[in-house]
Amino acid sequence: MSWQRVVLMGDPSHFSVKGGANPHTRTWLGTRRSVDRAAAVAQWKRLRDALRDHGVRVVVVPPDPGQPGLVYPANAGFLPFVDAEKPLFEKTFQLSNLIATRAGERFHYERVIRSQGLRTAAVPEHLRFEGEADFFPAGGRYLLTHGQLESQRFVARVGIPPWKRIYGFRTDARVESFLAPLVAPWPVLRIELVLEAHYHGDTALCGFGPAREHLLVWPPALAPESFERLREAFGPALLTLSDDDAARYAANAFSYTPPSQSRAVHESFLFMPEGVSDRLLAQIRERGVSPVTVDVTEFLKKGGGSVKCMIGDLGLFEVPDPA
C-alpha cells in the first residue's frame, strides 16, 4: 500500500455572499458584495486542477443553494495529526461549531467525510470552533488562534456612513481544554487575533515545509505578546510577511508534501494566492519549498477566503500499489 493526500473542496455553483460575516464580504457602506459566479467557478477549477496535477485527490462537497459558504471547507473541522500515515480506523475528524450563518454546512461536511471512511466526532456545542482555520500544526506544536467573540451587528458611529459593522472572531479560547488532549503529546500554543479582517488564524499564519517547520506570519494581525511567543518558539524559522503580501492573504496557503514513497528528498510545495511578491516567493524557495500560485481573488475579495480557506485537509489515505 502507498499513501495519497485527500482534501475537500466545495462546489462553487451557488457561491454568493449570504451572511456578510467578515469585512471582505461588505462594501464600505455595509452592503453585501456581489459575486461574479463565472469567474469564481473558473478560479475554483484552476485550484482543483493544480492540486490534482501534484497528486492530491480532491473530494468535492456537493453544492446547496442555501449554504454558499460550502466553498470554504477549511472550517469543516480538523483531523488530529493530519500528516500521519495511519489507517482510517485510527482517525477521527472533529467537526466544527460554526457561526450561525454557516451552521447548516456541518451536515454536508459530515456526510461527505463519512463517505470517505472517516469517523467523525463533535466539539462540545457550547464552544465556538471553526476547525483547522484556527487550529493547525506548525513546528512540532499546534497553534490555536482565537479572538474576542461578538454578536455580529451594526452599531452607530460619528462619520459617513453613520454606522459600522461589528464582526468579531470565530473560535473560543476555552476550546483548548477539549482540543489539547486530542493532539497530545504535542503542545498547544495559544495565539490571540486582533484584526477583524484576519478573523481566522490561517489568514495570518501558515506552517510550511516537509515538517511544517517554517512559519509565515503577519505580526499586525496578532496581539503583541502572542507574536513574541511565536518568535521565541520558531526563531529563525519565522518568515514575516509584508503588509502588501498580507493584504493578498499570502499566509492563507496550503502546505503540501507528497507522501514519502512518491517524493524526492525534502520535496515540498506551498499553494499560494497569485499576486504575492517575488521577494516572498524567493524566500520560500530559499527554504527548499516550491511555491505554486493560483488566482482565487473572487473568493478573497467577495468572501474573505483564499487558497487554504478553500481546502479542507483530510490527511493521508492508503491506496493500492499499482499491479
Structural write-up:
This protein is α/β, with parallel strands linked by helices and 323 residues long. It is built from seven helices and 17 strands. It has a single domain, classed as L-arginine/glycine Amidinotransferase, Chain A. The chain is 21% helix and 24% strand. The strands form six sheets. A three-stranded mixed sheet has the order 2-1-17. Helix 6 (278-286) links the parallel strand 15 and strand 16 (290-294). The longest helix is centred in the first third of the chain and has 17 residues, at 37-53. The chain is globular, with a radius of gyration of 19 Å.
Summarize the structure.
With 323 residues, the protein is an alpha/beta fold. The protein has helices at 37-53, 105-115, 176-183, 224-234, 243-247, 278-286, 297-303; strands at 2-10, 57-61, 77-78, 92-95, 119-122, 135-138, 141-146, 153-156, 163-166, 188-192, 205-208, 214-217, 238-240, 254-256, 269-273, 290-294, 312-319.
How many beta-strand elements?
17
Largest sheet: 3 strands, mixed
Which class of secondary structure composition applies to the elements?
alpha/beta
Structurally, how many domains make up the residues?
Answer: 1
- Gyration radius, to the nearest Å? 19 Å
Give the SSE map.
Elements: E1 2-10, H1 37-53, E2 57-61, E3 77-78, E4 92-95, H2 105-115, E5 119-122, E6 135-138, E7 141-146, E8 153-156, E9 163-166, H3 176-183, E10 188-192, E11 205-208, E12 214-217, H4 224-234, E13 238-240, H5 243-247, E14 254-256, E15 269-273, H6 278-286, E16 290-294, H7 297-303, E17 312-319
Parallel strand pairs: 1-2, 4-5, 7-10, 12-13, 15-16
Antiparallel strand pairs: 1-17, 3-4, 6-7, 8-9, 11-12, 14-15
